[in-house]
Amino acid sequence: MNRLTSHISRFQAQFAAVLVAATGGMTEAVAEWRDAEYRATLTNEVIHAEIQAGQLVLLENRETGRRLIDRDLAGAPSTYPVYGDTNLDLESAKIGLQWPAPNRVSTFIEAGTEKSAIFNWAIEPGRGGLILHSGSMSKEPLDQMRVNIRGCDLEHHRLIMVGGNGESHEAVAPVEGSIYGDPATPGFSFRSVQPLIALFEADKGGWFFEGRDEQIGPANAYATGHGTTAELSFSRGYIPSV
């Protein structure tokens, strides 16, 4: 199984990363992925998060009431690029939801007999962070595995991408197209050092994102601007064994 982990923390005054592991009876059905039965809410003292069919659709700072993510699912795309250029289509997938613990929720998505994905979300108690462990099983070797966080607000947050060499790039609304960590880099390349973390800064606090492969190390982070929002992606490429 290929795995990719994403760590999300609220920060105030200082940036702080948190790490935690989430594990996986589950109810499975073929239904509309936007249905309430596939909605889960995780909260602690400072974070309110809502998960829909494995995707983060609402993220709020409970102390300020400000939301980084508040997606309208009425016209939201049903495709999710778990495998990079290859999407899972939630409209035709079988979806299962499980609560292994009060602070953890697991969503299993099966797309036919070829591929499946699991999204394990967990929240730490107190002032801890929100964590996603995602995994996939496939009959064929995977070239890439990706986690996307959609609908991140840029009207009230400033996005800063920080790369492995310490370079950074800032994005504020409105912004369209790709957002890269190094302004001198003309485009995304798997051969160059890519951003490893993303910071969304607001007037009072903000959010810290990090992604990593559990066995390899940090995942590449990149973002795409959609006017007043950004879509954040963490990806890892794999070279199949011969």
CATH topology: Beta-galactosidase, Chain A, domain 5
The biggest sheet, with number of strands, parallel, antiparallel or mixed sense and barrel status, is: 11 strands, antiparallel
Average of the residue pLDDT scores: 77
Estimate nothing, just give the exact number of structural domains. 1
- Percent in helix: under 10%
Structural class: mainly beta
Structural commentary:
A hairpin with a 1-residue loop joins strand 20 (220-227) and strand 21. The protein has a single domain, classed as Distorted Sandwich (Beta-galactosidase, Chain A, domain 5). Helices cover 0% and strands 57% of the residues. It is mostly beta strands and 242 residues long.
Any chance you could write out the topology, listing elements then pairs?
Elements: E1 2-11, E2 27-29, E3 39-43, E4 47-52, E5 55-61, E6 67-70, E7 79-83, E8 86-89, E9 94-101, E10 104-111, E11 115-123, E12 130-138, E13 144-153, E14 158-163, E15 168-171, E16 175-179, E17 195-201, E18 206-213, E19 217-218, E20 220-227, E21 229-237
Antiparallel strand pairs: 1-12, 1-18, 2-9, 3-4, 4-5, 5-6, 7-8, 9-10, 10-11, 11-12, 13-21, 14-15, 14-17, 16-20, 17-18, 18-19, 20-21
Give a short synopsis of this structure.
The chain has 242 residues and is mainly β.
